[in-house]
Structure formats: C-alpha cells, structure tokens
C-alpha cells in the first residue's frame, strides 16, 4: 500500500477510474462520517452492494479508499487507485482573458468596410410613405399573402373565401394604424362613439370583413 499525503473523495476516485479504465474491478470503501453527522441515508447495510449512480451528494464527498484488481491480477489498495494505474484528472486551464483593441484597418481594406452613402443615387427612391412601404411589400409579396390566405381558409373548411391584393393592402394599413392609434378593444374602431371611432378605418372596410380576414 503506497503512502500518500492526500486523501481522495468517492467522487474523485470514480472520476480517475473512469478516465483510465485499465482494470478488471475496483471496490471503493467509503469512510463513515462522524457519528454526530449520521443520517438515515447513511445508515444502509454495510453488506449491501450499492452502485455509484445511487450515491447521494453527501456520500460522494466522503473520503474513501479503493481496492483495484488489475488485468494482470495484481491487487492495489490505496487512498486512491495506484499511481501507475490511474492518474488524477488534470485541472482545466484557466480561461484566457482576451483584451480587445480598436486598431486601424490596413489601407487596402478600408474601402471594403466603409459605407459610402454619399455615392448612392437616391433620385429614384420613392419619396412618399406609400412608396417606401411598397419597397418592402411589393406586388410579389402581396400576391403571396393573397394566395396563402385563400389556401389557409380552405384548410379550415372555408372553401368560399376569397380576397384580392387591394383588400390585403387595406387590411395591412389597418394593422399599421392600430399600432399607433390604440383603443381598449379593436372593434371600437367601428364604434358609433366619437371618442374611439376611427373614420378612416370604418369607411374603408366593414368590421365583419376585417374579422374574417
């Protein structure tokens, strides 16, 4: 039995054995805790074989010795498995602390990462809110919404449903308006009360049709 200054816990011995695996059998003998620290979970029969997966955290932290039967039949008894059989798991290196610095780009790369906004021709850009909106919701997008809305209604059993690009644009406009002109309940846009009614929405699309869409 080799002499060691350091004692190992059950968990440490298990980790070292799992790393090596070059043995036939290993028996771990757990040192009992002080009498005043005994609990119900520590009072199991000493003759009962217990797998390490069934051990509690408290038991894994107890000091232990191990009897290791090597493949050549040699028995090794120690406070941890024999040093020529198992070596302790190395500690993880400390994380590298990186220091970021703002350095100037090489001269040849400056144009690749520079926004030359002044060189863009903006003369053909739409200058109205509707024109800017149409840059994102162009005819292709609107037509796709029409097609998918009809298909979705059919999948829900409403085979008579139909809509048009113009109606979808109105529907989207109402959604945008409701984003900044809020009311406690959506149906109040069509209310007869002047303090909540939105004339632009009420005149453009009936409430029931909006609900269907």
What do these coordinates show?
The protein is built from seven helices and four strands; from the N terminus they run E-H-E-H-E-E-H-H-H-H-H. The model is unreliable at 1-5 and 80-88 (pLDDT under 50). It has 213 residues and is α+β, with helices and mostly antiparallel strands. The chain has two domains: 8-78, no CATH class; 129-212, no CATH class. The longest helix is centred in the C-terminal third of the chain and has 17 residues, at 139-155. Strands 1, 2, 3 and 4 form a four-stranded antiparallel sheet that branches. Strand 3 and strand 4 form a beta hairpin.
User: Could you give the distance between the termini?
Assistant: 83 Å
Chain oligomer state: single chain
**What's the total helix number?**
7
Uncertain runs are 1-5, 80-88
| Overall average residue pLDDT | 76
Radius of gyration: 38 Å
How many structural domains in the coordinates?
Answer: 2
Structural class: alpha+beta
In total, the number of strands is: 4
The run of helices and strands is: EHEHEEHHHHH
Sheet-strand content, in percent, reads: 5-15%
Main pleated sheet: 4 strands, antiparallel
Secondary structure: helix percent: 25-40%
Q: Can you tell me the overall shape?
A: elongated
Short characterization:
This protein has 213 residues and is an alpha+beta fold. It contains seven helices and four strands, in the order βαβαββααααα.
């Amino acid at each position: 039995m080799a002499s060691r200054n350091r004692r190992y816990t059950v968990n440490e011995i298990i980790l070292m054995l799992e790393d090596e695996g070059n043995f036939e059998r290993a028996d771990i003998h757990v040192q009992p805790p002080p009498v005043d620290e005994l609990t119900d979970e520590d009072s199991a029969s000493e003759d009962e074989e217990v797998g390490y997966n069934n051990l509690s955290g408290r038991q894994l932290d107890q000091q232990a010795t191990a009897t290791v039967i090597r493949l050549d039949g040699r028995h090794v008894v120690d406070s941890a498995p024999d040093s020529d059989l198992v070596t302790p798991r190395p500690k993880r290196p400390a994380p590298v602390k990186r220091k970021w610095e703002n350095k100037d780009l090489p001269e040849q790369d400056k144009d690749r990462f520079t926004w030359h906004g002044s060189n863009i021709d903006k003369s053909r850009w739409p200058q109205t809110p509707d024109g800017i909106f149409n840059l994102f919701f162009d005819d292709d997008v609107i037509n796709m919404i029409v097609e998918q809305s009809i298909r979705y209604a059919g999948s829900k059993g409403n085979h008579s449903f139909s809509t048009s690009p113009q109606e979808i644009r109105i529907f989207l406009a109402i959604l945008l308006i409701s984003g900044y002109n809020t009311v406690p309940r959506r149906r109040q846009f069509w209310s007869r009360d002047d303090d909540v009614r939105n004339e632009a929405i009420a005149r453009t699309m009936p409430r029931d049709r909006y609900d269907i869409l």
